[in-house]
Write a structure and sequence with these properties.
It contains six helices and twelve strands. The chain has 281 residues and is α/β, with parallel strands linked by helices. The longest helix has 22 residues. The chain binds 3-methylcatechol (MBD) and fe (iii) ion. The site of 3-methylcatechol (MBD) has 12 residues, from helix 4.
């Protein structure tokens, strides 16, 4: 880290916007019929809110000014993923009988380093946080182990920063990909992430402050789990006792996503078991 470089909403927002544009926006296709239906319904809901609450010109102009700043701060990925994605995720995965998932959020990066079926996530020497050894399996809904399955893992460091979205961190810090062998088993060594406060100095943070909400997400580990012939699972895993498990600003906690860490057998940090069950395509 250089003395002049610090984590700001505008910088992490610009990175998240760039990331979204290169990975996802070109795949977005919506038919005119759906645009017509959905745009009319959303606008009607806005009109109804204005009538019901007698919204004033001052309030309308405050909204307009805020919307302009969301774009200027590059915070559309952050704002949408925090306040809207959880419902999209519920709708998209309601048919599954395997693992519950959760939102991807704005900080996934494809192509993290492969560490084999058993390995340690890239981290700095002396990386802060309790060491965590996580063992698990990937199976299909019929119970058969899935060989060639992948777990992509990414999470914040002990200061709440994600590599590639905050300055001064190694490119792939706390990001990795494991691949299962014939038994579908994996073991990942990492460190426990800290609770996470979404950036407060950008437009999303200004909304949160103006409404007297809080900006916290509970500590969480992101995963994307895939295997040949199976639906990809995107999830986040949480730690029991976190004070924000019940009031996550992103509404992305589910009881099925709670980890159960225990003191490690060797006395160094914690160990836990968490398995994944994927739905066949
Ligand atoms: C995060 O780390 C996150 O997971 C979500 C959903 C939104 C903002 C930051
Ligand atoms: Fe996150």
């Amino acid at each position: 880290t250089t003395a002049t470089e610090s984590a700001t909403a505008a910088k992490s927002g610009a990175s998240a916007t760039e990331r979204f544009r290169s990975d996802k926006s070109s795949a977005a296709q919506t038919s005119p019929e759906r645009v017509d239906l959905l745009a009319r319904e959303v606008l009607s809901a806005v009109h109804e809110t204005i009538r019901k609450n007698q919204v004033t010109y001052d309030e309308y102009n405050a909204l307009k000014s805020w919307l302009i700043s969301v774009g200027e701060d590059g915070e559309w990925p952050l704002f949408l993923d925090v306040f809207v994605e959880h419902v999209v995720e519920d709708v998209a995965t309601a048919h599954r009988s395997g693992n519950k998932g959760s939102i991807e959020g704005p900080y996934y990066v494809p192509g993290a380093p492969e560490i084999g079926a058993s390995g340690t996530v890239p981290m700095r020497e002396g990386e802060s946080g309790t060491p965590l050894v996580w063992t698990g399996t990937i199976t299909s809904t019929d119970g058969s182990p899935l060989a060639g399955g992948q777990v992509e893992i990414w999470h914040a460091d002990a200061d709440g920063f994600y590599s590639q979205f905050a300055p001064g961190l190694p490119e792939w810090n706390l990001r990795a990909r494991i691949t299962t062998g014939d038994d579908g088993a994996f073991e990942i060594t990492t460190v426990r992430p800290a609770p996470y406060q979404i950036p407060t100095d950008g437009a999303t943070g200004k909304l949160i402050a103006a409404a007297n909400w809080h900006a916290w997400r509970p500590a969480h580990i992101h995963v994307k789990v895939s295997a040949p012939g199976h639906e990809t699972l995107t999830a986040q895993l949480y730690f029991p006792g976190d004070e924000h498990n019940d009031d996550d600003i992103a509404s992305a906690v589910k009881p099925e996503l709670m980890l159960d860490p225990k003191p490690a057998a060797d006395g160094n940090g914690e160990q836990l078991v968490y398995d994944f069950v994927l739905d066949p395509e």
